[in-house]
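Why does residue order matter? Because the sequence determines the fold. Keep that principle in mind as you read this record.
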Amino acid sequence: MMILSTWDLTGAPAIDVPVTLSEACMRVGRDILQAISAEVPQGMQWMLAEDNEYGQTLLLGLNAEELQFSRSIDLALSASRLTKSVAELVQDHLAGFEFIQWPICPGHTHPMVPASDDTGAWWRCRSTGRNVVSIGELPTSARPTSEAA
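Structure:
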């Protein structure tokens, strides 16, 4: 794996990162810092890498001394679907390895799920199917719950 670029969670990446990916990461990064900043390792950054083991693949992930992960990302997606994909990538990782259920749905105990449509990318209530808040505009009331490992 060859790292192409790293950048702050809400910062601007190097020029060689596509704008749609940069904006998707910035929106998800805002939500990470808004609701789970205490659980995020110091110095965490976005990472864009290239993997040639199984053909050329772009990998997006989070990178910090205590935590690093990446998954394949499809840059051909629309802006809203790419934002949804980045949010899913982070949410799946945190729930599966860090045991953080994030972001919590207002009035419920379950996490919201990322969704997208023609109007944008959303955090959606899994029980009602209602779009609750746009990804990137998460309020502090969506703080996570931690589960015992």
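The first strand starts at residue 2 and ends at 8.
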